[in-house]
Amino acid sequence: MTKLDRTDARMLLAMCDAPRATGVQLAAALGLARNTVAARLARWDEDKVLAPVDRCVSPRDLGYPLKAFISAVVDQHRLDQVLVELETIAQVTQITGLSGAADLLIGVVATDADDLYRVAGLILGVPGVERTTMSVAMHEVVAYRTRPLLEALAKP
Hints:
This protein is α+β, with helices and mostly antiparallel strands. The chain has helices spanning 6-17, 23-30, 34-47, 79-87, 113-124, 147-154, and strands spanning 66-74, 92-97, 104-110, 129-136. The chain folds into 2 domains: 6-50, Arc Repressor Mutant, subunit A (Orthogonal Bundle); 59-136, Lrp/AsnC effector binding domain/regulation of amino acid metabolism (RAM) domain (Alpha-Beta Plaits, 2-Layer Sandwich), CATH 3.30.70.920. It is 40% helix and 19% strand. A 4-stranded antiparallel β-sheet has the order 2-3-1-4. The model has no long low-confidence stretch (mean pLDDT 95).
């Protein structure tokens, strides 16, 4: 895992403000050598520091305005098989392993309520999924973000 430093944070903040900036533009804006910027960008690529571009595309823009989270209790002996099956469902946007009452938190998107019902049925039909509980997202109050963390790291 890559440890990011103050310079990395400054570069990332600049990229948040100007995502299409070139390495030369970043170097000029931050007062860094072009080679420094190029080397860090190359290291980020190698270490997969930046999320894939598909993480930036809103499912709403793809025709999936409805978002929900499904908590699933899973037979632990079949967990690997369950994960492989869940990844085949296109509307599954994320899966997080949990401790506590449920084993997985599955983020899903749907075109409408009927589609959500169908997707929930697909998940419940996966061998090894024992039971599920669904919560429909009504409004995203704070979207996934790291900017405040970057700002804290960028401070001198």
